[in-house]
Design brief:
- This protein has a single domain, classed as 3-Layer(aba) Sandwich (Rossmann fold).
- With about 170 residues, it is α/β, with parallel strands linked by helices.
- The chain has 4 helices and 10 strands, in the order E-H-E-E-E-H-E-H-E-E-E-E-E-H.
- Strand 8 and strand 9 form a beta hairpin.
Length: about 170
């Protein structure tokens, strides 16, 4: 099995909870789950697969801890890494910036050489606009725990099935 590291930023605990649910479903140990508020970019080194989770705040902003961490992470050569993104947003109150944070991470890491997997079809989501949505596909898994929490479990399971097919195991 390939080595998987999960890195998340969470201000209210929602993204942390999602990260832990994903870890449990994949059998990822607690030592391989990292809060970016106290992680170093060097912490990604031992992993072949990086699952990066971030919530979107305000009008499309990264979660605070990701601001600093992403600036350091994007300076690394990630050419040997496979990256899958997940994030939380509010599609009702911020429908024009829904899950923009994962779009920002995607955009900032595109030039690091990593391979992205885990795109999600945008049909079935209620939102107006998102930088995380390119040609009808989200660049990662968007979740809305505020308005569509009843769909979270199914969306996580579908996404995990997809990234498994793309070679994370």
């Amino acid at each position: 099995m390939k080595t998987i590291g999960i890195f998340y930023g969470s201000s209210t605990g929602t993204t942390e909870g999602i990260a832990k649910r994903i870890a449990e479903k994949l059998g990822v140990e607690d030592k391989d789950i990292h809060d970016v508020s106290n992680a170093s970019p060097a912490d990604v080194a031992p992993y072949e697969i990086l699952l990066l989770g971030c919530s979107t705040w305000g009008a499309g902003d990264l979660q605070d801890d990701w601001d600093s961490y992403l600036g350091k992470l994007k300076k690394l050569d990630l050419s040997e890494k496979t990256v899958a993104l997940f994030g939380c947003g509010d599609s009702a109150s911020f429908s024009d910036t829904f899950c923009d944070a994962i779009g920002t991470i995607y955009s900032d890491l595109r030039n690091t050489g990593c391979k992205f997997i885990g795109a999600v079809d945008a049909s079935g989501y209620s939102f107006d606009s998102s930088t995380a949505c390119i040609n009808g596909m989200f660049v990662g898994l968007p979740l809305d725990e505020m308005n569509e929490d009843d769909q979270t479990e199914g969306r996580i399971d579908q996404w995990l099935a997809s990234i498994r097919k793309e070679g994370i195991e």
